[in-house]
Amino acid sequence: EASEKPSAENVDLINNDKLQPYLSTLPPGTDINALQKGFSDIRASWEKFHLTSVYIEQQSLSLRHELTTLRTANSRLTYDVADLRRQVTLLGGDVQGRLSL
């Protein structure tokens, strides 16, 4: 309620010279405790969002690395298959790899 006394922490906040210009624009009777709680809730939500964002970014980098590794392996295997087909053809075999004897 607006009639409650501000906490000691909020008294320091109210008396802070740097914040005084901002606090003076608040309507009379503003509940500083509720305002401080609101800011704390916003800060906690932002921190949770930030941690989630960092985690997702790390996962994205990990998956990007894995994708690059898989693409490299795929390219290598594609080359190996093409090379084996050339060798089978040189030996007189067909596409299924059967040699004609």
Secondary-structure blueprint:
Blueprint: H1 8-14, H2 20-23, H3 32-90
Briefly say what this structure is.
By secondary structure, the protein is mainly α. It has helices at 8-14, 20-23, 32-90. It has one domain.
**Low-confidence spans: pLDDT under 50, at least 5 residues?**
none
Question: What structural class is derived from the secondary structure elements?
Answer: mainly alpha
Order of helices and strands: HHH
* Overall form: rod-shaped
Estimated helix fraction: 55-70%
The overall average pLDDT, rounded, is: 83
Number of strands: 0
> Span between N and C termini?
97 Å
Helix tally equals 3
Number of domains: 1
The radius of gyration is 34 Å
Strand content: under 5%
Reported for the largest beta sheet, the result is: none
